[in-house]
Design brief:
The complex is a heterodimer of chains A (about 280) and B (about 110). Chain A has about 280 residues and is of the alpha/beta class. Chain A has ten helices and eleven strands. In chain A, the strands form two sheets. In chain A, strands 3-6-7-2-8-1-9-10-11 form a nine-stranded mixed beta sheet, sandwiched between helices. Chain A has a two-stranded antiparallel ribbon with strand order 4-5. In chain A, helix 1 crosses helix 10 and helix 5 (about 145-160) runs parallel beside helix 6. The longest helix of chain A is centred in the C-terminal third of the chain and has 17 residues, at about 195-215. Chain B has three helices and six strands. In chain B, strand 4 (about 65-70), helix 2 (about 75-85) and strand 5 form a beta-alpha-beta unit. The chains are: A alpha/beta (about 280), B alpha/beta (about 110). The interface of A and B includes residues 85 and 86 of A. The structure holds iron/sulfur cluster (SF4) (2 copies). One iron/sulfur cluster binds near residues 72, 75, 86, 91 and 109 of chain A. One iron/sulfur cluster binds next to helix 4 of chain A.
Chain lengths: ~280, ~110
């Protein structure tokens, strides 16, 4: 079973929910938390454990050999992703558009586009407690494309997960390709939002994305207790979107968060909210 | 000097399209003989990724020396334009092609 935790924008408390929900559920059942917010994987700050594995994740991209190229332009015709361009005096490559399909490389008549591995990021796998494991992938600085690292990490997770493990995916914020890559493999997506006009706007975008993917999803209203709460709640009720929990804003939570500590162990209201989420989604 | 304008229409009084990569047309004015040429870029609407570099490729293939547009190209498109030293001028959004040309002559456009 895979649950993804996502949000239309950053800073809504998505990671806080992911780490706390994972640790809470792991008191009773086996959980693997995957931090797939590869540009800013913060889960390791809250969950410390023993590292059991790490690996470099590479992806293959072509490299242009000017000396042998005859400028026939075949590579550009072959690339369906516009990652190769023939301009008057050279071939230009756009690695972030490349899908590593090998077509240009294999069909270049002079073998002038050999593929080579480029480090996309590093994956870490740690044991946090008897029932909790953490897998977090970190995008290499300067790498622009998160999707290949995310998909390689998901393959790794599928390799290590037992059938009774619950996988919780912490998704990148936003609604672009990296978020789609994470949520498309989940059975259910929890969208975290906050009671601000920006939060509301981005929630609507995230909902639209989920509907387009035909995904089962529910909503958690975080940092509740603002007069704007009702706008979001009424919107969800009238459209029949399910809000499975409201987590109130608390100063104490912000303090624990900055200290890198788990919230539910010290704040009963948050433990209560997590158990409501667990019951609503039948995760316990 | 050949000057390219990103535009939504085919005439000198057509509005400048502030977008570069997804602009449907480019009017190319050759100052040498005042001739005009149109680049039809409308097929770009069906390109999901990499529209900018593709469009930039057409611009440099046409031998353009100055590009006049609104917001300016993205990084990849700029990389392509730079390979042949195209001068990129921005801030012409909201003008017509004619007005943008005059603004260029008066040095009123921003260097990208
Ligand atoms: S297919 Fe090969 S030889 Fe032809 S232009 Fe591309 S790199 Fe050069
Ligand atoms: S490997 Fe495939 S996607 Fe990458 S540049 Fe070559 S043809 Fe394009």
């Amino acid at each position: 079973m895979i649950i993804a935790i996502a949000s239309g924008k950053g800073g809504t408390g998505k990671t806080t929910l992911a780490v706390n929900l994972s640790a809470f559920l792991a008191e009773k059942r086996k959980v693997i938390l995957a931090d797939l917010d590869v540009e800013e994987p913060n889960s390791g700050i809250f969950l410390k454990g023993r590292q059991v594995h790490s690996e470099k994740i590479c992806r293959m991209i072509p490299e242009w050999i000017e000396r042998t190229c005859i400028m026939c332009g075949k590579c550009q015709e072959l690339c369906r992703f516009n990652a190769v361009l023939k301009i008057p005096d050279r071939i230009m490559l756009f690695p972030e558009l490349c899908h590593s399909c090998f077509a240009c490389s294999e069909l270049c008549p002079t073998s002038s586009l050999p593929m080579h591995g480029e480090t996309g990021g590093i994956l870490y796998h740690s044991i946090i407690s008897k029932k909790l494991q953490l897998v977090d992938s970190h995008l290499e600085i300067g790498q622009v494309s998160a999707v290949p690292l995310i998909s390689a990490t998901i393959s790794y997770l599928k390799g290590i997960a037992a059938s009774d493990d619950l996988l919780i995916f912490d998704s990148p914020p936003g609604t672009s390709c990296p978020m789609l890559e994470v949520t498309k493999s989940a059975e259910h997506v929890i969208l975290v939002t906050e009671p601000t006009p920006f939060g509301f706007h981005d929630l609507k975008l995230a909902i639209k994305t989920m509907e387009k993917l035909d995904k089962s999803f529910s909503i958690v209203l975080n940092q509740a207790g603002d007069e704007f709460d009702s706008t979001i709640i009424e919107f969800c009720h009238s459209a029949n979107y399910r809000i499975i929990a409201c987590i109130p804003y608390m100063r104490r939570a912000a303090e624990l968060y900055s200290a890198g500590r788990l919230l539910y162990q010290e704040i009963p209201v948050i433990r209560e909210a997590l158990s409501v989420i667990a019951n609503n989604l039948q995760l316990a | 000097m050949k000057i390219a304008f990103s535009t939504t229409g085919l005439e000198m009084n057509s509005p400048i399209d502030p977008r570069f990569g997804r602009s449907e047309y480019f009017i190319i004015l050759d100052e040498k003989d005042n001739s005009k040429q149109i680049i039809d870029n409308s097929a770009i609407t069906s390109v999901a990724h990499g529209a900018g570099p593709r469009t930039a490729q057409k611009i440099i293939e046409a031998g353009v020396g100055v590009l006049i547009t609104g917001n300016g190209p993205g990084n990849n498109a700029a990389r392509v334009l730079n390979t042949s030293g195209v001068r990129i001028l921005v801030g012409a959004g909201g003008m017509t092609v004619d007005e943008a040309y005059r603004a260029y002559k008066d040095n009123k456009l921003k260097q990208f």
